[in-house]
Amino acid sequence: GKVIDKNENRYFEAVVQADIENGNYVTNQLQVAEENATTEKNGVTLFGSQVDPKTLGVKMGDKIKVTLLKGAAKVQNYKGMYEVTGAKDSEWCKVEKIGTANINPIEITVDKLADYQAMTVKIKNVSSNSTGTWCSADKFGTHNFSVSGTNLTVYCQANSVFANKTFNNATGDITGVATIYNINSQIAPRNLSD
Q1: Which of 18, 15, 4, 63 minimizes the C-alpha distance to 179?
Q2: How many Å from the N-terminal Cα to the C-terminal Cα in the chain?
Q3: Which of 8, 73, 74, 93 is the most exposed place for a label (fewest CB within 10 A)?
Q4: What is the pTM for the complete model shown?
């Protein structure tokens, strides 16, 4: 990764996107986006044990001030995911809760997922094409749904509200946080109503 700023701390304010209470987020990832942003490239993933949302005690809709410490915070493209991170054993970031905000999902098409990474999006007319179990209590699951013939990967974390719950062959809208895993775009629904 490349150091963001050697000489100065950098600050920004953002809103926590993932629904921590329902558990469908990846450990050590904190997805945040600019408040009320409606255009692409306004979200970022902070990555590392220091920024795990459970450790920080933040939840979806919390407005936070992020301080990226000089010489320590780095930006990198990890298999297609843009992330801000730092050395595991050093302090590279401070996160402070400053308020709360509403999150309004942005309606996008499935081909735009990567551009909206770490932002909450809605995709219309998604078909599951099958029935199945989202995930188990001990293993995450991904399922390939489709939107007019285009693949959409839906991510469900072990132990989340999705564990051992089933989905049916159906078509509808899916809302969630746009994420990337191994260059593949995914959507991580926040709760069962998404």
Answers
A1: 18
A2: 34
A3: 8
A4: 0.93
> Cα 75 to chain center, whole Å?
17
Closest CA to 96 of 46, 56, 142: 56
Residue 134's closest CA among 188, 89, 98? 188
Triad 12, 77, 79: Cα angle to 5°: 135
**How far apart (Å, rounded) are the C-alpha atoms in residues 56 and 39?**
27
Q: Name the token pair of 33.
A: 């986006």
- DSSP at 50: G
Each residue's pLDDT tens digit, 26-72: 889 999 999 999 999 999 999 999 999 999 999 999 999 999 999 99
Number of H helices, E strands in the chain: 1, 16
